[in-house]
Amino acid sequence: MTKTRALALVPCATSLLLLAPSSAVADEDKGQTIGTKVDQAWTGYKGEENELELELVSANGERVTRRMRGRVREHGRDEQATITIVWPADQKDTRLLTWSHRDKEDDQWLYLPSIKRVKRISARGRTGSFVGSEFSYEDLVNVWWVDKFKYKYLRDQKVGPRDTWVVERVPRDPESGYSKQQVWIDKEYLTALRIDFYDRKGSLFKTGNFKSFKKYGNKWRADRIDMDNRQTGKKSSVIWKVRSLGKTFTDSDFSADTLGD
Description:
This protein is of the alpha+beta class and 261 residues long. It is 15% helix and 46% strand.
């Protein structure tokens, strides 16, 4: 290569180096914008009451079903939720209370009727399984708030007939069980069609597929979530059987002091 040609390449290489950080910032800005759209689409429902089924499938195909009822409400900038198992009898009245916070660590309590005791779930404990399912306690806090993650736009992609944005989001919680998540966000529904969860080592851990979308007022919701553990072969599904938005509740409905009542 001649000296003249080599010198000519220098500005080109320098331009690429200058453009790379700008492109990365643009992808982060676009990712945060998409995350904000999802956040805004989720909020404003006031309160929700529902009846659900939780189906657990072992690696060899054995199935166990649990029936639950739930309540969730917006409370200022926070969100509060309860899940109560109503069947089978040996787990009846097991209750999980979650206070999701935008600006600080989330709070969760689990009431176990077998020992009549309320257990506070620690930050590290949120990586644990909820009643033996492939859903962790961390999956049951509000996962749609833009404040919870650092977003990066990856690409546009068709998923069947649906148009999606694919984003990478990294949890801001240092105790999270996930190093990152890759999320396919439907451009119309403004919520996830799929989430790939990566463990702390960076390996693909599990995949959540969101299905059976229905519009409640002006809010799209997935009435089924299938969670597949990609490392063990186990699966769990949550199916909403009854769902009502716009509900009003009292503070006592979401109190840790009355969780065992």
